[in-house]
Design a protein that fits this description.
Blueprint lengths: L1 H27 L4 E2 H4 L10 E8 L5 E3 L4 E7 L13 E6 L11 E8 L4 E8 L12
Parallel strand pairs: 1-2, 5-7
Antiparallel strand pairs: 2-4, 2-6, 3-4, 4-5, 6-7
Length: 137
Amino acid sequence: MKKSKFLLGGLLIVGAVSYLMYTGIRETSTYYLTIEEFLPQRETFTHASIRLAGRVQHGSVQWDPKTLRLRFVLGPLAQREDTPQAVGIPVQYHGILPDMFAAGRDVIVEGRSDGTILTATTVMTSCPSKYEAAAGD
C-alpha cells in the first residue's frame, strides 16, 4: 500500500513537471513570419496579432523623440543595399526607441496589421550577425 502511494505521488510530480515544461516552452517559443511569407497572404492576417521578421529599409525611418512615434518600412531580410527598395510593409510604433535600432538592422515586430500598415506593440532588434572592422583597420 505504501509503495503504491509513493509510486502514484512520483507519477503526479513527474506529470506536473512535464506539463509545466511543455507549456513554458510553447509560450516562449518565438515563431515569426518573414516579410516574404507575410506579403502574399497579408489579408489573412488582417486585425490578427502577428510577429514579423524583416530588415528596416534605408531612408524609411521617421523618429520623433517628443511624441515617441516611430515609423519605418519593414522589408525582406535578404535585401541588399545595392538593389532597389523591395516591397515592404509600413510600421508605426509608439514607445521608447529600441536599443540598436537603425536602418538596415534586422528586427522582429509584434503587432496588428490592417492590411496596409502594421501597428506595432513591440519592436525587437537583433545583434549584428557579423563583425565588421572599422575603416582603416
